[in-house]
Amino acid sequence: MALDWDQLEKIQPTVLKMVKNSLLKNRVAHAYLLEGMRGTGKREIGLLTAKALLCLSPDSGYKPCESCVNCRRINSGNHPDVHVVEPDGLSIKKHQIKELQEEFSKKGVESSRKVYMVVHADKMSASASNSLLKFLEEPNSETVAFLLTEQFQQILPTILSRCQILSFKPLHPKALLQQLEENGVDAQNARILAYLTNDLNEAITLNGDDWFAQAQKIVLKLYEVLKKNPLEAMVTLQGDWYQHFKEKEQIDCGLDLLLLIFKDLLYIQLDKSEQIVYLKYREQLEQFALKVSARHLADQMAAILDAKRRLSANMNPQALMEQLVLKLQEGSLFV
User: Fold this and answer.
1) What is the pLDDT of residues 182-199, one digit of tens each?
2) Where are the domains of the chain?
3) Does residue 72 surpass a pLDDT of 50?
4) Which of 59, 99, 212, 213 sits between 20 and 30 A of 70, alpha carbons compared?
5) Mean pLDDT, to the nearest integer, of 146-155?
6) DSSP letters along 121-156, please?
7) How far apart are CA 307 and CA 89, in angstroms?
8) pLDDT tens, position by position, 77-125
9) How confident is the model at residue 4 (pLDDT cuts 50, 70, 90)?
10) DSSP summary character for residue 59
11) Please, how many CA atoms are within 13 Å of residue 316, restricted to the half-sphere of its CB?
């Protein structure tokens, strides 16, 4: 079910205030770049703005009514004047942008305006980016573009200069926690998921996935053996970690789960136990927290964050994890 204006305003108030002002003053830009983390509402607000532009009876002059034929068709994804382009495989190809240009050379089928959305705009091939740039350089007054990206720095500067940029803030974990609990997610998983993702749908999917439940157990086991000796930690990597965390996104999730353990230990040491997320393992964590210094915890968290950066740079996952385990143990970090 599509979220309405009031619901999305709670998630991204600053962005929607800018959109509202543009609509009321009739100063809608010909191109917007919506940038921010996954799950922060970029696609939803892009489509919400499309509905506001095409709505037959907007409330207060800017809120889509959600009940007219245009609003309903946009919600169902079949409005002829709203086009969404997504990566074909790993990238957005030149022919996809060319087809979009051809479509937009025609008049609107059911309205005077046309709206297009390019999802993962950072994944456009070089030729697709150049084609889009030509499209943006000669905007039709009745055409509005929304380019969505999680990788702002990957967009051509010449494209950026032709767009109004709307930056989406990460959702506060407390807000997502509340939404998860309202959707029936138990307190333990809700707290962990609220710190793993900004995306409610992704969080709910993970919650019902046996893979996620097993992932938590493997990560905790890895932490426990880290305190013993390098050999046992390497055995755990071979026997459990590599078998479970196979894809890049899964490995990244595993590193995030590991990082949360170290954060919990730090919260316990700072006497902020109410902030820990691994509620089920609280007693174990309190015992672990007695055996490590705050300085070493900071070093270990920095090592995990560095591993996440190297993973995103396509370092070999097996070499990365082996180096991380050794780094977490070097210098007698566990005392």
Assistant:
1) 889 998 899 999 999 888
2) 5-167, 209-329
3) yes
4) 99
5) 93
6) GGGB-HHHHHHHHHHHHS--TTEEEEEEES-GGGS-
7) 27
8) 999 999 999 999 889 999 999 998 888 777 766 777 899 999 999 999 9
9) confident
10) B
11) 4
Burial of 31 (0-12, 13-18, 19+ CB in 10 A): buried
Would you say 143 and 113 are in contact if contact means Cβ atoms under 8 Å apart? yes
Which CATH number is 5-167 given? 3.40.50.300
Helices 200-207 and 173-182, packing angle to 10 deg: 50
Q: Is 314 helix (H, G, I), strand (E, B) or coil?
A: coil
> Residue 2 — pLDDT band, cuts 50, 70, 90?
low
CB-based contact 56:70 (threshold 8 Å)? yes
Whether 312 has a pLDDT exceeding 90, the answer reads no
Residues sharing a CB contact under 8 Å with residue 69, sequence separation 6 or more, in sequence order: 56
Q: Is 32 helix (H, G, I), strand (E, B) or coil?
A: strand
Which element (helix H / strand E) includes 114? strand 114-118
CATH architecture of the region 209-329: Up-down Bundle (1.20)
What percent of the chain stands above pLDDT 70? 96
Per-residue confidence (pLDDT) for residue 318, from 0 to 100 = 94
For the CA atoms of 296, 297, 302, 305, what is the dihedral angle to 10 degrees?
Answer: 150
Give the position of tokens 């709505």: 55
Helix (H, G, I), strand (E, B) or coil at 99: helix
pLDDT computed for residue 92 by the predictor: 95
Query: Are the CB atoms for 116 and 146 separated by under 8 Å?
Result: yes
The token pair that represents 302 in the structure block = 């920095």
Alpha carbons within 13 angstroms on the beta-carbon side of residue 268 total: 24
Over residues 24-45, the pLDDT tens digits come to: 999 999 999 999 988 888 999 9
Residue with tokens 């992704």: 202
CA dihedral sign of residues 202, 207, 210, 212: positive
Task: Provide the residue count of the chain.
Answer: 335
- In this predicted structure, what is the pLDDT of residue 175? 81
> For residue 205, what are its two tokens?
């999917």
33: tokens are 């770049």
